Amino acid sequence: MRFLTLRYFNAVARLGSIRKAADRLHVAPSAVSRQIAQLEHELDTVLFERSKSGVRLTAAGEVLARHSHRVFRDIDRARSGIDDLRGLRRGEVSLWVIEGFVRGLLPSILAEFQIRYPAVAFKVQTASTDRIIEALLEDEADIGITFNAARRAEIETIAEFPEPISCLVAPGHKYADRKQLTLEELCKEPLALPDHSFGLRQSFERTVAKHKLAPKILVTTNSLELTTTMAATGQFIAFKPALAVVSDLEAGHLRAIPVADQELASARSSINVHRDRPLSHAAQEFLKLLTVTIRAAKERSK
């Protein structure tokens, strides 16, 4: 099995299209098709199901994609290790984070790191907590920032921070001047919440079930940004850690009001890595800056 063939296969698996893979690799689609056909002949199995809309991995293709992805990640680590030996500071860090963190501290942390290590590149992916844990397990992510993630033996928590969940309302909302709200009060209002793959939604569902409440969830979405926007209309209430909406609170677009519930008040965000997978020098240095910066921000917010 040649490296080039595996590279072509990996591109098609990732993009779901032979033409898109060819464009990304700067070769003709026919060249990609030949490499895939050769690989299927060598392995004596079909790796892709073809359709008018593109290609989809078969069960055998899923197995090969998973293992070949790890091969390319190992090559990237080897390249990074060689750079470290040369005293260079090149590299690439794969960072998966909950969406709220992108609007909070992440931009300033990335900017500061770029000043220190200008040649290090980042791949930043926003996802739900469940998907971030999966990315760490599948070697797609070097570092993951999660919210209220369930404990996993394979995942090491580098740092954990209190992240109480507040409800978000517009300045003109009837609850805008309240110092605290009960779940009973909140469940009577129209709510905009993320879907069930988000740690925040899971915490909310556990809490209302414990109190036998029936919330009025009128908007469910995979976008935390949309829930915040819905709250800003004045017609909905959303839920988020206050740190995730610092800019909106400072600008006066929203008000964050604590919820009178122990589980929601004891929520946490975590910085995670895979327990048995070494990080590159670049990822290690970023992990240090990330941890120190979040810890300092938490201290200032007390």
UniProtKB/TrEMBL annotation:
GO cellular component term of the entry, any = cytosol
Picking any one GO molecular function of the record gives:
DNA-binding transcription factor activity
Q: Fetch the Pfam families from UniProt.
A: HTH_1, LysR_substrate
Keyword annotations from UniProtKB, A to Z: DNA-binding, Transcription, Transcription regulation
Per its UniProt entry, which superkingdom is the organism in? Bacteria
Q: Give start and end of each HTH lysR-type domain.
A: 1-58
Keyword Glycoprotein annotated: no
Q: Which InterPro entries match?
A: HTH-type_LysR_regulators, LysR_HTH_N, LysR_subst-bd, WH-like_DNA-bd_sf, WH_DNA-bd_sf
Keyword DNA-binding included in the entry's annotation: yes
Q: What does this chain do?
A: NodD regulates the expression of the nodABCFE genes which encode other nodulation proteins. NodD is also a negative regulator of its own expression. Binds flavonoids as inducers.
The record's comment on protein family reads: Belongs to the LysR transcriptional regulatory family.
According to UniProt, the name of this protein is: LysR family transcriptional regulator
